């Protein structure tokens, strides 16, 4: 059976499969190949709507996310425009982050996909990727709409324009049969549905499509969106009118045979597969030709190694020239290697380390931090909530109710409970993965189990579930106010419900990516990864806080005066923002023991701040002090 499946792969895919088995490099990751392997070998169950269909927002099976990854990859890889706005980038990033988190849950948090994705959002590219990125930008630069033949829109960029210009110049100057020569062009569909079925149909109808066509020939359709490989007679590229009429006729025949294209507009990008320009070796009076090569550093180790490589380069140039150049009349000059970027990068690392060390010293000395926000903390107790040293924990949230601390352990489907001095550690096993928690009274908590669409009311004294609520969607952050639960559902709406689960009213969220919430008196504070929103209880935004340096806000709580405390998981800090959103400072950092902190809770009765790390079982109780004069 496996052999019959392998027969469906192209020779290139079989080669990629062999390479994939022997390589751990991201360069070897062929998403199309992996998608086909997962699908044809039935390595995972089918997506909710089936393979090839676009998953709905509520579809979160593993296969649904595999389908999403393929589609996001195609959207990014085959854009008509290389420019991307920050909001669009953040949307792509957050979509992948959500996928990573769901995959962590599928694999019991053994993989840390979400953390890997987060680290790559603002990480520096290595030199190999920088070079690849710059070259890709050069190739895709200024791709723009060239003409429209409804419903088709044809795009191409400078590389295609330059090739056309060179070709037309050549045709004017040369009286030959070159006009009968064909050139290969790739045409990429930007709007694609049912990719594999469409490709199969197109390839099966190759002869029918090419029948009665003159000057343009359909060769093959391949994946990566839908890529059509065609050959066009050079003479038909001589004018814009000839090219446009040829393409329009060709695609009318395509659309007559494919019923899956139901979009009002279909974007097509043209890419030259070969240059139309004939290269001539430069003469001694001509302009120099600059060639850039990526050469492994090892080859510069000795002069003999260098000479051997330059000889190979020279031979390759002569082989592919038109014969007018020889080894005797080509002169090569090596320009010095610029290491400024590397030196600058190293210097930035040194500066960053110096800055971090200075900030840590300030924190340890309890020196006031920037903006003079009148809040300071003193460590009361450092706790270890692991009963066994080799336990794997994934602590998502925490609360303090009286002398009792409660933590949600998502990895192990349980609550961890202990006294505020760290004694009497015990567990309450649950049927679902607890993600968010709120206090109802001194003996009762409400826990939202995100991907199980379940809220459980739990008596922590009797260690029993007293009520189970099933919201209409995926439940995220949860908070109690006036005996009502405020629950973030599907990132996009807040349900206000009583303790039996009856929805009293709903509140719109300020964005479509809200995941944590805290409610106190007449204010509702919620967060996404990069912003804090303070709202009235009807959802009207009173103020918004956003700073580029904080890109991974995780959990939120407020004190008696309305100041907002937030964990930043990636920076390993606790941020405090004033009740009017105008002032902020980093209250706690790595120097205070924070290491990927998630849970945070402010005990308003005792003015104690509880913070817990995600993985290592460490939790901290801080006494919070405030100056007399606000914002002094």
Automatic annotation (TrEMBL):
<dbReference type="GO" id="GO:0000209">
    <property type="term" value="P:protein polyubiquitination"/>
</dbReference>
<feature type="domain" description="DZIP3-like HEPN">
    <location>
        <begin position="13"/>
        <end position="133"/>
    </location>
</feature>
<dbReference type="InterPro" id="IPR011042">
    <property type="entry name" value="6-blade_b-propeller_TolB-like"/>
</dbReference>
<dbReference type="GO" id="GO:0061630">
    <property type="term" value="F:ubiquitin protein ligase activity"/>
</dbReference>
<protein>
    <recommendedName>
        <fullName>DZIP3-like HEPN domain-containing protein</fullName>
    </recommendedName>
</protein>
<dbReference type="InterPro" id="IPR041249">
    <property type="entry name" value="HEPN_DZIP3"/>
</dbReference>
<dbReference type="GO" id="GO:0043161">
    <property type="term" value="P:proteasome-mediated ubiquitin-dependent protein catabolic process"/>
</dbReference>
<dbReference type="InterPro" id="IPR050952">
    <property type="entry name" value="TRIM-NHL_E3_ligases"/>
</dbReference>
<dbReference type="Pfam" id="PF18738">
    <property type="entry name" value="HEPN_DZIP3"/>
</dbReference>
